[in-house]
# Entry
Amino acid sequence: MSASKQANASGRGLTITLKRSPIGTPWRHRLVLQGLGLRRVRQSVQHPDTPQVRGMIQKVGYLLEVRPQ
# Structure
């Protein structure tokens, strides 16, 4: 089993909450939010802690609150 699958199997993940409205943000940032599954302000989703998810969070981090699970 790879290291990333072991980390996911142990329950490591992130809770991501949309804190600010994406109105007035670049179109690509809205696409990133859509990819994360965030539609409404104060909506929370859970994702595994992977480099792909971390990159998406870095791109739109000014709109989000991120907490470990």
Summary: The domain at 3-68 is CATH 3.30.1390.20 (Ribosomal Protein L30; Chain: A,). Strands lie at 13-18, 44-48, 64-68. Helices lie at 3-9, 27-36, 51-59.
